[in-house]
Amino acid sequence: MSAIIPPNVLGDIPRTPAGLLSNREKDRLIERAFLGLYRWYTARSQETRNWNADKSFDWRAMNHDLPGEIITVVQGFFAVEQYAPDYTSSLVNLVRRSHGRSHFQMRWGSEEEKHADAWENAVLFSRQRSPEWIAEYKERLKSKQWELPFPDAIHNLVYTVFQERATQLNYLNLMKIAQGKSDKPHLKDVRDPVLAKVAQTIAVDEAAHYNFFLEGVRLYLYYYPQQTLQAIKNVIAQFSMPAATLVPNWEEFFETVYRAGIYGPRDFSRDVMQVAFRNLGIESRKKLEEGIKATREVPDFEDDSRVQTIIWDTFDYGSVEGDVRRLHVKIQDYENEIGFSELDPTEFIENPEVPRTAQE
Ligand SMILES: [Fe+2]
Ligand SMILES: [Fe+2]
Known about the structure:
about 65% helix, disordered N terminus
């Protein structure tokens, strides 16, 4: 997060007030936590979610008579996921200086790649799209390239939290339809245990992704509250699903998803935004926006302390600190298990800017 400053302006850098963490130190702490979390995540991913897109599902048993709109949905999910190489290369490059984050993005990419292959298998084995049609569709998709929705790492990190949660929700709601649990009359007779298992398996991965990125945003929120709150506000102001501008007939897909009761603006607000807010100690969008606005209204000549007070009042920093502490305990348990703790343990360092008296 710290700026790269040319040597000729080094003299202009404000010195970190005594007792506070410098940006360099904050960046080091965030990087260490990311690295520890990434090691924990990888072990867990291999132990609990090591499925295969071809062999983990009984593809021949897939329902051959699924309604056309379910095929439209599955095809759209495939279209979004098949940009996995673009997502991964852009994100790896963005965070290439961070060991924990760049290696994580490769692991993440390897999981997203499985999602693309599993959804493609589902389209193929539905027997409602020919292999030639799929090949042509893929060619059309691949002719366009996905690009980062935001130029900097913090905004993209925040974006990914909302995106992973939204994706998980989409898949869980398709799973319910495939289990015959749709509350839409025209879909209540749909049954496909294979499709239900695919949707559920991928949704579990998306939940793990959501959690990883959520922990990352909590770290930034704890050490860099002002920039992170601003990034959250910016991301929700213009949130859309990835590849929405790249996939042909996106509107039709989006309409179908909405009419099937899978995902729409209300779901985003209630089951994505509010869930993520709760996990980040943010009470509501209104409270977030008011907090950010209030910091701008502090006149320049006043000292920084009023801005600081407003920022820390904008979210529940106590709960975020508790979450960041728990993350460190999880990493430390993992490091104890391996033996890293004897050589190079990850430690939690409190942010001294957190208002202690109000908290007690
Ligand atoms: Fe995915
Ligand atoms: Fe994901």
